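User: I'll paste a sequence; please echo it back and then give the predicted structure.

Assistant: Echoing your sequence first, then the prediction.
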Amino acid sequence: MIQDECKFDTDDSYYTHEHIMYLVGRYRSLLFKQTYGGVNGNLKKQIPASAFQEICIDLVQTPGNMVTMCDSGMYLRSTKPIPSIMPYTKANLYNTDIYSTISHIDLTNYERMKYIGHNKFLQKIIYASIAPDNYLWLKSQNPVFLNLEKLKMRAVFEDFESAAKMACDADCEMLDRQFPLEDALIPVLIQSVVKELTEKLGVPEDKSNNADDNQNENMYSNGNARPTEE
């Protein structure tokens, strides 16, 4: 849609797919903050399911002395950093094994991790947090949690491309994926990106409202030099 609106030649364009996706991601984050971001962490309105993405997280056992929390025992840590999550949204963790006895995983703040998990009445709970290194860490008094090898996380990620690369179907092409934004905001997003691209190229708006592509003629009539033939 953006290429069509800008009259870009898909085979030979100054702006590549990667450049357009970068702008799309930047304006998506801006639209989220304008549409949903409220005061003191309270949302202005409910975020629709279409805005969420789901990623798969591989886990590896890590000795406690390698963690800044300094607890003894073993932890689980993600093998890759977790993409940034929108600050005013909540993420949820799920066990990928539907037959496992491990069902509830409490995603909490990193600063609380050193103080929780010691209550004898809550020994079965698994606690998780995203550390300053952006890796996901898990701890529990229940030794069974060490059997976990993979988790799913559902969240609204700031960088939709990074999240897509960690999706459970990561082999799917980026341009074939459903874009994580509600339908009502898609036209605003397209208009914003098209405006920025056309302004940078100095392409005036085609106001003739006919079937002809007059943008090139309008651009040259405004004093811009025509390319010379070689």
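Confidence is low (pLDDT under 50) at residues 218-230. Helices lie at 2-6, 17-35, 160-165, 186-201, 215-221.
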